[in-house]
Amino acid sequence: MDCNKNSFSKPDVIPVLDFELSEIMQARDKGNILSLDLEITEACNCACVYCYRYESEGAQPPAANELSAQEIIELLTEAKEKHDLRRICILGGEPLIPVIREKYIATLECCNRLGIEHVTFTNGVALDKETAQLLYDLNASVCLKLNGMNAQTHDALVARSGAFDKSMSAFNHLIELGFGNKRSLSFETVVTKTNYNQITDMWRWARERNIVPYVETLTVQGRSQAHPNDLVVSNEKLHALFVRLNEIDHAEYGLEWEILPPIAGGHRCLRYYMSMYVRANGIVCPCVGVDLQMGSLRTDSIKEILSSEVACQTRYINEHITGKCKTCDLAKSCYGCRGAAYQQGDLFGEDPVCWREQSNR
């Protein structure tokens, strides 16, 4: 792993995660969406064994009914002008896959015209030097997949030989252009049994290069449903890992954050209050972990989608959650991982992955 080190400076959080609670709740009550998760395509050049999106094996082609560039532009324009959209996550599939490159560029150009910040989540396989320059020129922030400190681990989890080397090359291309200093750069991974013992090394590797770590717990859905026993880490071990990461940040980098799942680093998921997840075909859901449909961009306005029964329940999720999550002393600013609860059969139930909830039983 030969990516050049930067001198460490206190990092910004990933751009889509740093809204204040007061503005989030204000956006909810006004019917606004401060952020949006946009699945720009179903096409993907990897086949991650933990993928939340697909159950079928192998790389995926684009779907026949994906939103066009013009439909995405109309979505972003409506969201910005009528609902105060400020930032989007561009997801896949794989956003940088060449077959949808023109649509991807049109999306970022539209964001820039409208003043919407954007971060691209990518596996890095198609992120060569030319693409890195394109990302820089389009004012992109980037979150790059990194599943381990070696090819054996990373390639096994993304089910593609050579993916680790491509990811490392992608990091190098981005850092050479100033990502990590002039522009936000982060890495994303899901904690599994396969990479558990490498997470602390990955964390330090990132901090030393001003790369923001985005380390999250696994939600059992998609491909991971076929082999959860090979992937799922116990709550006790997840808690121990998050505690260790917190200790590293405190002792070595002077950073302080609260130890809570599902994301290490003190990032609370509050998307239900002020966001929505748009699938490549225009279907809108509360988040990537919950497939309940709020509506469709091809038939409904955003206002109508946010007025749907599902949206009314999820945007006021704190009024519907049950069990220990409801009585937790953090309930006003945390509702747990709803995706994890939903995959256990109850969207409003206790978060089964939260060790804090377990300790309050």
UniProtKB/TrEMBL annotation:
Pfam families: Radical_SAM, SPASM
PROSITE patterns hit by this protein: RADICAL_SAM (PS51918)
Radical SAM core domain residues: 30-256
Cofactor: [4Fe-4S] cluster
Entries under InterPro entries matching the protein: 4Fe4S-binding_SPASM_dom, Aldolase_TIM, PqqE-like, Radical_SAM_PqqE_MftC-like, rSAM, rSAM_sf
Superkingdom, taxonomy of origin: Bacteria
Keyword field: 4Fe-4S, Iron, Iron-sulfur, Metal-binding, S-adenosyl-L-methionine
Keyword Lyase: no
Name under which the protein is recorded: Radical SAM/SPASM domain-containing protein
Organism in which the protein naturally occurs: Halodesulfovibrio aestuarii
Lineage start: Bacteria, Pseudomonadati, Thermodesulfobacteriota, Desulfovibrionia, Desulfovibrionales
